[in-house]
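Narrative of activities, Objective 1.

The group set out to show that a structural description can be obtained from nothing but a protein's sequence at a throughput compatible with the screening campaign. Below is one input-output pair from the validation batch, recorded exactly as produced.
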Amino acid sequence: MLELEWNYFEVLGDYTFNELKQYDVWNFTMERYMKVTLEKWEDFVHKQNQFNEIVILDSSIFQFQIYSLILAGASFAQLKAFVETLFEIISPLNPSLVYLYRENTDDTIEYLEKNRGLHFLERIWDRDKNKPYYNDRPVGAEGYRMFLRDYGKYAKLLFDAAPIPKLCLEITDGKWGEYVELLLKFVNLSYVDLAEKEYPTGRYYNIELNQYIEIFNDYCLTPNGGKNDGCQNQKLSLFFMIFRYAFDLRIMGRPS
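Output recorded for this entry:
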């Protein structure tokens, strides 16, 4: 629902948006969330077993689970057991895990505030302020900062315990060329030097996914509306490598 609110609220209007909110997983009880989540992952595995393709999922294993369970007052032991069940479900797909993080979570929080603004932290806290996690914690942005610090701690512990091939990239120094090399080595792929290519401002469309990215002078907008700064460097090369080759991007002539 957050994506709908950010990108489509003006199109949907108050009534439609509020009607849809009853189906938002953020409003589920923890028990209902866990039940529905496991069912959806089982269905995903069943469908993917019928195709010979690579799927890249962003933040699906850790982020949604940490937010949903920890905000609901679950212990880390409960969270870890639930994630272990997810790994068991997806094991037939031979998954791998890539974890990008900063050792000092405050560096990530600072980056988040710089790129999305203090109002973003306050807005997320306001959305979740009635969750059990915040019962005895500070109000406003500081409460959400505290949650993000716990998030960073739990995500690293979950990564360490993950029973699948995995790669951990500490990105504080922003050495994206090195990160690309490590990622390519991990997935056994050869590097294609996209840094020398010029991608004019415009919209680049993926026919098969029915998704697009938009490139501007020094940033790009991802399919979900996220903003990535510094696009004309190795970060863009990494993004295009994933978007173009893993998903078979078709660039149809000049961008629209």
